[in-house]
Amino acid sequence: xxxxxxxxxxxxxxxxxxxxxxxxxxxxxxxxxxxxxxxxxxxxxxxxxxxxxxxxxxxxxxxxxxxxxxxxxxxxxxxxxxxxxxxxxxxxxxxxxxxxxxxxxxxxxxxxxxxxxxxxxxxxxxxxxxxxxxxxxxxxxxxxxxxxxxxxxxxxxxxxxxxxxxxxxxxxxxxxxxxxxxxxxxxxxxxxxxxxxxxxxxxxxxxxxxxxxxxxxxxxxxxxxxxxxxxxxxxxxxxxxxxxxxxxxxxxxxxxxxxxxxxxxxxxxxxxxxxxxxxxxxxxxxxxxxxxxxxxxxxxxxxxxxxxxxxxxxxxxxxxxxxxxxxxxxxxxxxxx
Length: 337
Ligand SMILES: Nc1ncnc2c1ncn2[C@@H]1O[C@H](COP(=O)(O)OP(=O)(O)O)[C@@H](O)[C@H]1O
Ligand SMILES: [Mg+2]
What we know:
The protein has helices at 24-49, 65-78, 95-98, 142-155, 174-182, 197-212, 270-277, 290-298, 302-305, 310-327; strands spanning 4-8, 16-20, 50-57, 83-87, 107-109, 112-114, 116-117, 123-126, 161-167, 185-186, 188-193, 217-222, 227-232, 238-242, 248-252, 258-263, 282-285, 334-335. The protein is α/β, with parallel strands linked by helices. Strand 5 (107-109) and strand 6 (112-114) form a beta hairpin.
């Protein structure tokens, strides 16, 4: 960087022009400002290259937000779309594990980070890729965390995408706020809940949060909403099982002797009611499925393991509604800055 001539005025003498060194602090500031400007330009480019950005939020943890985020991404990708998923859960990033990408070394070239590639070609970026020891807790103070998120957004080479799904830690903390401030446009928020009253109460907070930051709510997904039990007996025979709330649930087997009963483990209809009360669309329910737990643990999502299974079908239905919303001529994409 060249030196900047500074004019010093001294009383009683002619003004002299002196050359003064730019302090290293000033240089650092200028460098930082330059980097920020570059990042802003890259973010604007990324905003143009990625058609739709969808945030996945929930009021509380463990309701299946990451499962839904990866499921949405896979389901969209199965329809032939170019999809990316950005895992912003810095303290508990588990998207790579769910997609069997744990321990992937990311390719970095000219300061650009290239996402890992998962099933159906989905591009994946997660803090998990940057953490050396997955067993060590990540304890970052606010500004460092927010800096990391901005870097996530500005330094990743996504290329052109039809959709980017963004997974967050639970709650309405700094992360979604930072992302909503960094990204010029976000299409909307998908809110994940389970059917219990407490989870629904928390999801109301997420809906209000989305409204506060002026991002449209694409809709609510109710997860773990029913557990399907399948059985086999004599054809056309009555079957009864004890339901979770005490009564007997009955059905009749079909001509081949197969029967199934769906148990509402927590409660039913909670997601629909919450969506109705808050005047946001209901996108659909996902069954409670032990295979989803296994898939999450062994890295093969249910959609990939059983492309025609109940979970895959449920995700497809949800995604169809999401696509309809995104493709509305007056798609609610908002410009935040
Ligand atoms: N529909 C479902 N049926 C069964 N287990 C599920 C379902 N959805 C999520 N899970 C399991 O619940 C746990 C928490 O899900 P996760 O997606 O990590 O939640 P969150 O991201 O909200 O914390 C995981 O073990 C996951 O496999
Ligand atoms: Mg999660």
